[in-house]
Amino acid sequence: MSLLVQKYGGTSVGTVERIQAVAERVYKTARDGHQVVVVVSAMSGETNRLLSLANEISARPIPREIDVLVSTGEQVTTALLCMALAELGQEARSYTGSQAGIKTDDSHNKARITNIDTEAVMKDLQSGCVVVLAGFQGVNEAGEVTTLGRGGSDTSAVAMAAALKADECQIYTDVDGVYTTDPRVVSDARKLDRITFEEMLEMASLGSKVLQIRAVEFAGKYNVALRVLSSFTEGEGTLITLDEEDAVEQALISGIAFNRDEAQITVRGVPDTPGIAFQILGAVADANIEVDMIVQNISGDNVTDFTFTVNRIDYDRVSEIVNTVAKELGAADVSGRSDIAKISVVGVGMRSHAGIASKMFQALAKEQINILMISTSEIKISVVVDEKYLELGVRTLHDEFDLAQNSQ
Amino acid sequence: MSLLVQKYGGTSVGTVERIQAVAERVYKTARDGHQVVVVVSAMSGETNRLLSLANEISARPIPREIDVLVSTGEQVTTALLCMALAELGQEARSYTGSQAGIKTDDSHNKARITNIDTEAVMKDLQSGCVVVLAGFQGVNEAGEVTTLGRGGSDTSAVAMAAALKADECQIYTDVDGVYTTDPRVVSDARKLDRITFEEMLEMASLGSKVLQIRAVEFAGKYNVALRVLSSFTEGEGTLITLDEEDAVEQALISGIAFNRDEAQITVRGVPDTPGIAFQILGAVADANIEVDMIVQNISGDNVTDFTFTVNRIDYDRVSEIVNTVAKELGAADVSGRSDIAKISVVGVGMRSHAGIASKMFQALAKEQINILMISTSEIKISVVVDEKYLELGVRTLHDEFDLAQNSQ
Questions:
Q1: What is the SS3 assignment for A93?
Q2: Is residue B407 included in any domain, yes or no?
Q3: The complex's ipTM?
Q4: Which of B4, B27, B21 lies closest to B86 in space, CA to CA?
Q5: Which of A238, A261, A76 is nearest to B70 (CA)?
Q6: Of A225, A300, A322, B146, which sees the most CB atoms within 10 A?
Q7: pTM of the model
């Protein structure tokens, strides 16, 4: 007998029929002798419906009341799923975040879980009752409803799995696992059986948005075995493991991630003195704009060149900010472009294997793809290229590292 | 400075615009220096939407989960109203039933309030914050969400007003007060400025469904001054008072109530022995059918005739049940009809005035309206007539007792 936490996202519970299908799956799991906690999102579209009501009333609705409002979405799903389970003869009981003892800090709309009091949930599980928990929500010290931010149901599931010392946290979604790259770009992309947390983090942050990053971090930190599966098809999905040894059969490279929504800004001829990077990026951060890659090259003559990338929608605002700062700093020139894309090769294997970078650059060169920027981490090499080469670049690298379905 | 509880029903908060209009009214009340607790229902249509989701899943959804499901409707309204109040610069804070300390028994879907812990609400009120409470809901000992049954938001408002010792509990609805009779039947029906609780109970149970009966009973029991007003127009509405002295200027008769949905069953020639009424009505009660009027006449020869009325939709089922019982009892005959209606004259004044009944019967006779049944209480005289005479009967009595607008 295992204790399993299963999380079903908004698409998986988007209609009454789908909720009934989830009930069937949960029922089978329980009948196989497992203890099951089910974490559910709001039915797809519901959170947006509620938020649009709020926005009709106020351009900036008060955060406390947004949480009171949107947390109802998940609560509705828990009740409907318990009813569907009862129809199958499976005892089940719904829990709000508050009822399940999920304590958070006071940050409405983006609260962090501080503690989980699992007593009530454990009691139900031990009596053979399925626990159905509203994801994405908790309660602060004052007894107010809080939410964990969008996609926070993944975090609820992982946190509950950690608190209950569950054997596995299964994230059911509309894809059947983590792929070597986006199958819409490379048709023979292969589903991975296993991937490490670190790789998953690099893949997720680079655009393969299967799981919320915070959930993966949390799972890694508390050593929760995490599995991504499809709620619509059968299959083992992808297991995300802490242990690199588990991933020993894996290829050198796990996948090719990419991000199309990038724009780059270059400041040339900046005085090469301490504090320059802060002065440029501080102004950008003050405008609440997230910076992705940052590259600075060694240069002569006491001046340096400084390049960074941001999300494309922030490009115009960033250009304006940086032009102002550059003038103050006496920089020679500011330039930029928004028709770029980032491609990354990700794999824990590259820690112990040399030559991955040169293999990557050679493959791109063979296809006449010019590299605009390079940035590396321990388990990832990212390049920025002209956006028009994105698909070609991803396919080329997917082939180069033998990631295709029929190559294994 | 007064402490006011204002309750707004589903129609009054049915759209974002209406919620904004409610916010304006609450804001004005608060700005006039009053402490305000607002009790809200779900936006009109929302409870039905949620229940139909449940019914798609189960013919008999589990009661505990129905409460979890439908209680979200009121919660949504509280959040939206607080946002609208914030837009006007009025501090406000939403409360679920649980957060407001509304403790109930365990009867899901029809829970009764056992206790209210007003500490949190009082603290907010004293700091000048408007409290916005989700009506219709509470929490049981085990911390589970319960609901008070449909229309229970009135009960929430009255109970909260009693617990807070509020100066007045104002029920905002889509009518501007309690009328001498239904204005759709008698065009010059008059709005009453005052009515006693007892009269209101008789009026409400007889079809003038302005307020939930339980709420009126509760208000009477705890001496809460209750006022019915319109959320769409200005006006003083109708004050419902405990004190008969308050109603001293009132006419003898307060109003003419009626109910079209009646059906009658007569059992003739029943042996006139103790326990007969129980044997007939016990079988009806076992089928969970509510009986309205009951009339039994003195008769000779050790047999008696026994007539009662039920809601018309139960007529076929009741006929079947009573036919079976009548056979067992050796009754002579069972008959019935479903094309009848009840008309009642209501007024505390009749306690101290003779001749009301004969005046009523004479007026009906003048119009050739035959009376099928008569039943009386201390402050009410009801007659059952052929349904086709309903409107004529109501208009006749409304005139007879000088209730019209221009007659005062």
A1: strand
A2: no
A3: 0.77
A4: B27
A5: A76
A6: B146
A7: 0.79
